[in-house]
Amino acid sequence: MANKYFMGIDVGTNESKGVLIDENCKIIHTEIAQHGVENPKPNFWEHDAEVVWWGDICKISNALIKNSGIKNTDIKGMGVSALSADVVPVDENCVPLRKAILYGIDARAEKEMEYLTEYYGPQRMDTLFNGRPLCSSDCMPKILWIKNNEPEIFEKTYKFLTASSYITAKLTGVYVIDRYLALSSFAPCYRGDLSIDDELARECYCRGDQLAEGKETTDVVGYVTAEAAAQTGLAVGTPIITGTDDSGAEAISTGVLEPGDLMVQLGSTCYIMYCSEKMVTDERIWAEDYLVPETFCLDGGTNAAGALTKWMRDTIFPDLVQAQEKGGENAFGAMAKLAEKIPAGSEGLVVLPYFAGERTPINDANAKGVFFGLLFNHTREHMYRAALEGVAYSIAQHVDIFEENGLKINNFMCVGGGTQNKEWLQIIADVTGHTVKTAKITIGASYGDAMMAAIGTGHFKGYGDLSNYIEPGMVIEPNMKNHEVYKPLKKIYHELYENTKELMHQL
Predict the structure, then answer these.
(1) Cα 125 → chain centroid
(2) Contacts of 164 (CB under 8 A, 6+ apart)
(3) What is the DSSP string of 271-331?
(4) 306-406+416-433+477-506 topology per CATH
(5) This prediction's pTM
(6) Would you list the domain boundaries of the chain?
(7) pLDDT in tens, 374-427
(8) Fold for the domain defined by 5-249
(9) Over 50: is that where the pLDDT of 1 sits?
């Protein structure tokens, strides 16, 4: 009897990752594809969905099958995830009609958000958006932006899709979106039972039939078509689950499976997800149904994390990049070693990492990055460590919000490329005062996609089975002496934004 294998592919901001696992969740093979992101003007961030999203799916799927030596007919299911809260309009053949508008880093729909907030009024806003303000991670204002600014494209649109919906449609011909994305990123147009409120959609946005059908994340919604099989190397008829966003899949991969579990995803951006047994209304964060049935998710996002460290590498440490290119040490690794030599608090230097505006908890697309407290004794090493600390202060703000709402953190997991920087993990532990852990397998969302495909096709009964296969990795205990050093600096971090936001907006 042939072994069972499951494929997962995740499409991210700057790269895509794919994995094949066996029936015991052991990784058989992985593949990575790099791509770019387009920033045509301030606050505009885009991908070419056909070239980047679908192109990476085809590259990675073919490479996984070829380089693993596994027969495509032995792959019993596939799950995909991708950037969350994107919008790409497609025609009836699933051909994109424009470049995809990306998630929270794209803040072009600010006027639309202001209009909707005034149109609905405070009471209706509270009802429709669970007590939170509209933000750049909401998809419906982006659809309204297309309607207002590109009416010819709007009129031709058959479906407005997010990234995972687009990929699943390319694989199967079926247009679906999972509960997590439908009720969060596409609020307020989906009801709790995942039906579409056509009247509400038409009121401000688009026809209800222009939105994808709501499904559970692990539902098998279709099968690989002959056309998709020819391009991906998958067997015709391979089961495909609904899929989800990258952060949700990454949370599953790292063991966020029950209330009290928290994930901090250190990628190009930082995404924070907390699994809760109750819904919480707090305008500083987002709240919606979680992937695990009968639980809720409280989450937020910092727009610049790995992207900020990359900017610093390329701008302030070009000599380390050149050394790496000549066969020397990895530039990020060298930077981390330099940061270790700088004391906690960077000798009074505080960074606001708002280089691409900010999502939660300030929800301000016009926020700006700040280096505050610079003195002649500060070096580029201080600046780098202070940037790592700035992201940690943002994470700590979210942890404080959860705890203010009476929620206990039992399991603090970090995942993503940033976990390779152990000094950053130590800083996060020190700033928050919590023990920080990583999972043994840190490839991230694609691993979660493959495991959810195993659930959807019946190999596992449910999410609870996955806890038997997710093994612990690093455990980083907080240095409480450093924690005390960071307390007043975290307060300055918060007040610095409050005291400069009007000046930021004037810029």
Answers:
(1) 25
(2) 80, 81, 82, 177, 178, 181, 242, 243, 244, 245
(3) EEEEEESS----TTSEEEE-SSTT-EEEEEEES-SHHHHHHHHHHH-HHHHHHHHTT---H
(4) Nucleotidyltransferase; domain 5 (3.30.420)
(5) 0.84
(6) 5-249, 306-406+416-433+477-506
(7) 999 999 999 999 999 999 999 999 999 999 999 999 999 998 889 999 999 999
(8) Nucleotidyltransferase; domain 5 (3.30.420)
(9) no
